[in-house]
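Margin note: ligand = adenosine-5'-triphosphate.
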Amino acid sequence: MALRIQDLSVNIGKTPYVQGASLSVPTGQIHGLLGPNGAGKTTLLRTLYHAATASTGTIHAFDRAITDYSPYEWAKRVGALVQSSGLLAGLTPQDIVEIGLSILELDKSELIDRRDDALALAGLTDKATQPASNLSGGELQRCYFAQLLACDPEIYILDEPTNHLDLHYQLVLLDEVKRRGRTVLMTLHDLSLAMRYCNTVYLMSQGQIVGRGAPQHVLTREILMQYYQVDGQFHGAALTLQGPV
Ligand SMILES: Nc1ncnc2c1ncn2[C@@H]1O[C@H](COP(=O)(O)OP(=O)(O)OP(=O)(O)O)[C@@H](O)[C@H]1O
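Resulting structure:
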């Protein structure tokens, strides 16, 4: 099993924002964390890149506990695309991708190849040496996506990876992740994308995983009504929405 989370709880102060969550992602599968705003999805993911500490529970990657890895060793194998608006301080997209790649200690020619291939995939070749502070929201998201694709870790942790992306790049970049056959755990609000990409989804509500399974089995009309307060239904991969309830 590539990633195994068992009975994970995260308290902030005394409040539990994730409670007793367990999930396992087999090697090469894409699993999705779904649920309404504030359900605890990001908080759960944050424990996987050392931005939050589990109050109880265990996290294993490749049958080794996260606590048995150095943060550096973990970051080489488990890469994350997070919702951030980092300080760009004069950096270019090339710099941003290179900073990510520095952890891999590559020789210069491989570093340049990986950097340029990833920037090309993200459609940023023409802007590679311009200040990243001039990029649009979607272009900046593509830049951070390029950083992760250049590093190409064994496990991808993606928090709302399609944030700001137009439809073309949503599909190009997620298709690329899928094509690589990596293990992925990602949060998504776009349920159609969950249908398209996820082998398994987990529905979170109020810090708990309240549903799990193949997306077509989890995302029923009743579930959409109960947890998202919308009247909608999937027909195959197409979602028909009547409206909020
Ligand atoms: N550091 C913090 N201090 C206080 N509350 C926090 C903190 N971090 C998260 N929370 C709260 O924890 C809850 C879960 O937040 P989280 O970001 O995990 O939700 P989410 O499911 O990712 O939501 P969204 O879909 O809106 O991104 C929210 O109510 C949030 O306000």
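The pocket of adenosine-5'-triphosphate is lined by residues 12, 17, 35, 37-43 (CB under 6 Å).
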